[in-house]
Write a structure and sequence with these properties.
Ribosomal Protein S5, domain 2; five-stranded mixed sheet; Heat Shock Protein 90; 775 residues; single chain; Mlh1_C; nine-stranded mixed sheet; DNA mismatch repair protein, putative; DNA damage; alpha+beta; 17% strand
Length: 775
């Protein structure tokens, strides 16, 4: 047996770095802490400069009270502060800072310089800090009243965090959002934010919250937002700026401030989202700014290392009142956004339900010799009964089948409920658009002899229990629709409907589904009209969704950004390329003009998938996995908390399903989006995909959330080198990419981003190859 380890006190430097890692995780944390320090210092003007997304430089300059000369050696020491003297002060603390850890943490992971001057001093002072201590002499310096803090080379001593940093623009956007939120909440102050010398934001102070809100969020229509002010709880006031149903803005973000402190509150967010979904409709991403003011003794601020969450009295009651007020106000403004309601289909009470051409076609495809005994029902009524349609009032006879169907006016009629109900334990998946015609068939009918047809009546969804069988087609065409009726069958149907029926005294009873009995058989796409009924009712691998127009401004903005940041040269090459073949799963060769190009499969395909995901957002067909994936078990492969992963994903499962067709239920992943028709990814990196969306997605930030999800979905759907370990899988995947994925690049709407330029390398030109052969 191994001996137990000895308990030892950690070295101070280790303790300091661990503590710093909890508070400062990215540049936006530095900006937020320094911004709050400036507000605590009663500043009127705050100027923020950043470089390289904040990793190169973060400089915040204010005109506040400054720091005394005697306090400069302790400015970055741990647990030193001028805002708190004893623990009980936390109950009434009115400042942002109280622990004395922010500047200390910055000095442990960056190079910090502080320059300051108070109104009593004749000149200012400047010093550099490292690991909480002053690392340089205190210098006298000419300075204006206030404090300037410079944080350079963030995470210079933590290569892992430095190498894992996102693009500079991503961090710059996060910083912009934080500064904008404080600028709205503190309209009396002046804020200026610059990135790499370019101004991103400026407010002038002395304004109203509404004015700053409209300025920073490009709100021109005053009716786009509305304000609610009320008291949701004793001694609590709430001021809320909310989006009207018709609101549209390129910059959409949300914020909750409690006593001037920016916090996250899931219960409030849920109350607001629920109020909008119940009133305006699902899929709406509301814009809101909530400013709550309550007695400080009712708020517990010492809850989270970064102070992003707080506890306060009456949280549940306040959330319920917020939900109630928002819902009432939205209902009053509902007229500003038209809601399309489904009309009930009505018919004249004097009219009998008549047969539609679909039934005639259905019967014409099932030609069966009559049996001996006389049937109590006609063929037509038997078919209607089996499909759940109402029977005709009188029994059908030979004469009735010869008569032309009764003409109907073009008006809406009700659909009768199906007469068959399945047992409870075998709940069905309901097929949609059963028996439908295609446009090309309709055009062919025009060339046939004119036949007076009745107005068709929609057939109901038959409640027939279905199960997954091994003959499910993998094609996108195999959706919940009955495939096309062959032209020959359609012609025969039209002809026989007008032909006189031969007189017969023999019985017409027969087994309607005798010839529909399932026989294992591969049916090609061209013969889909000849599929058996069991095949038609089998749940497909790919399930289509009704098309919806995308209204999320964040997605529309991402589409524009992708197009604006595209490479015209690479787009031209990939659009006009000739595919030559694969070197292996990781690389393939193409030619364009007189050039030969080597392409990295993952990089090129992922870039294409990002574009397609943006184009197909919230309209993906649903690609069902052969076997559901256990989320907890999968993420545990990489050492992640399975229960946390399941909880996080199930809490956001509705959004994932609505936007990306990702189905999550009972801790399992059932489906992914179908990005390219008939393309089946291997999902070899599924453990990494699930871990990344659990750990890296900011579910509170719409743009960051969707951007990360799109990037991760594109990555997990793209081929990776590990796919080459299995030669059979590799060959199948290469065939799919060559025949299904790469041809998509030749479409008119295709563009390649600048990121993809690193994945394509020009090897030779025809002239250079000719020279080499001559040598």
């Amino acid at each position: 047996m191994s001996e137990p380890g000895y308990i030892m006190k950690l070295d101070d430097s280790v303790i300091h770095k661990i503590a710093a890692g909890e508070i400062i995780t990215e540049p936006v944390n530095v900006v937020k802490e320094l911004l709050e320090n400036s507000i605590d210092a009663v500043a009127d003007h705050i100027q923020i400069n950043i470089e390289n997304g904040g990793y190169g430089l973060i400089q915040i300059k204010d005109d506040g009270t400054g720091i005394r000369k005697s306090d400069m050696p302790l400015a970055c020491a741990r647990h030193t502060t001028s805002k708190l003297h004893k623990y009980n002060d936390l109950r009434t603390i009115g400042t942002f800072g109280f622990r004395g850890e922010a500047l200390f943490s910055m000095s442990c992971c960056a190079h910090v310089t502080i320059t300051t001057k108070t109104f009593q001093e004749e000149y200012g002072y400047s010093a550099e800090y490292s690991d909480g201590k002053m690392s340089s002499d205190l210098k006298n310096i000419a300075a204006t009243e206030g404090t300037t803090v410079e944080v350079r080379d963030l995470f210079y001593n933590n290569r892992l965090r430095l190498n894992a940093r996102p693009k500079a623009t991503t961090d710059a956007k996060k910083i912009y959002e934080v500064v904008a939120k404080y600028a709205v909440t503190y309209p009396e102050l002046s804020f200026v934010l610059s990135s790499n010398g370019k101004e991103m934001l400026q407010t002038y102070g002395g304004s109203k919250t509404e004015d700053v809100l409209k300025l920073l969020f490009d709100i021109e229509d005053t009716k786009s937002i509305f304000t609610l002010s009320f008291s949701p709880y004793p001694n609590v006031t709430a001021t809320m700026f909310l989006s009207a149903p018709s609101f549209s803005s390129k910059k959409k973000m949300n914020a909750i401030f409690i006593n001037g402190r920016l916090v996250q509150c899931q219960s409030f967010k849920h109350s607001i989202d629920t109020a909008y979904s119940e009133t305006v409709g699902s899929g709406v991403s509301p814009f809101y700014f909530i400013i709550l003011v309550m007695p400080q003794e009712n708020v517990e601020v010492n809850v989270h290392p970064s102070k992003k969450t707080v506890k306060f009295i009456g949280e549940v009651e306040i959330g319920e009142e917020i939900h109630k007020k928002i819902k009432e106000s939205l209902e009053q403004r509902r007229g500003s956004r038209p809601v399309m309601l489904m009309k009930e289909r009505t018919h004249k009470t004097s009219q009998k339900p008549t047969d539609s051409p679909q039934i005639d076609k259905f019967i014409s495809q099932i030609s069966q010799k009559p049996a001996e005994d006389a049937p109590p029902l006609s063929q037509r009524d038997k078919a209607r009964q089996m499909l759940g349609l109402p029977l005709l009032d009188a029994p059908s006879n030979e004469k009735s089948t010869n008569e032309e169907p009764e003409k109907h006016e073009e008006e809406e009629r009700p659909i009768a409920p199906p007469s068959y109900k399945p047992p409870e334990e075998n709940k069905p998946q309901e097929p949609q658009n059963f028996l439908s015609e295609s446009d090309d068939e309709k055009s062919e009918v025009k060339n046939e002899p004119k036949v007076e047809e009745p107005v068709t009546q929609d057939l109901p969804k038959p409640n027939i229990p279905v199960e997954n069988t091994h003959f499910s087609d993998d094609s996108d065409e195999n959706q919940f629709f009955l495939p096309k009726v062959p032209k020959s069958v359609k012609k025969n149907t039209l002809n026989t409907e007008k032909a006189p029926k031969k007189s017969s005294t023999s019985d017409t009873r027969y087994n309607l589904f005798a010839e529909l009995k399932y026989k294992p058989k591969v049916v090609s796409a061209a013969e889909q009209g000849m599929k058996t009924l069991e095949q038609l009712l089998t749940p497909p691998t790919v399930i289509a969704k009704p098309f919806r127009n995308v209204e999320l401004q964040s997605v529309l903005e991402m589409r524009r950004n992708f197009t604006e940041n595209s490479s015209k040269t690479l787009t031209e090459i990939l659009k006009g390329h000739s595919f030559l073949g694969f070197c292996d799963i990781s690389n393939f060769l193409i030619s364009f003009g007189d050039g030969l190009y080597l392409c990295n499969t993952f990089g090129v395909v992922k870039d294409l998938f990002v574009k397609l995901i943006l184009d197909k957002f919230q309209n993906f067909p649903q690609l069902r996995l052969d076997k559901p994936i256990d989320i907890a078990q999968t993420v545990s492969i990489l050492g992640n908390d399975g229960e946390k992963a399941v909880q996080t994903l199930e809490n956001n499962s509705a959004m994932l399903m609505d936007y990306f067709s990702i189905s999550i239920e009972n801790g399992k992943l059932y489906s992914m989006p179908s990005i390219v028709s008939n393309y089946r990814p291997t999902y070899s990196a599924m453990p990494l995909f699930l871990s990344n969306i659990v750990n890296n997605v900011d579910w509170e930030n719409e743009i960051q959330c969707l951007s990360t999800l799109i990037d991760e979905i594109a990555s997990v759907s793209s081929p990776i080198p590990d796919d080459g370990n299995d030669k059979e899988v590799e060959m199948k995947l290469m065939n799919q990419i060559g025949s299904l994925v790469l041809p998509v690049m030749k479409e008119e709407s295709f563009v390649a981003s600048m990121d993809a330029t690193e994945s394509v390398m020009k090897l030779y030109t025809a002239a250079s190859l000719f020279d080499k052969f001559n040598q």
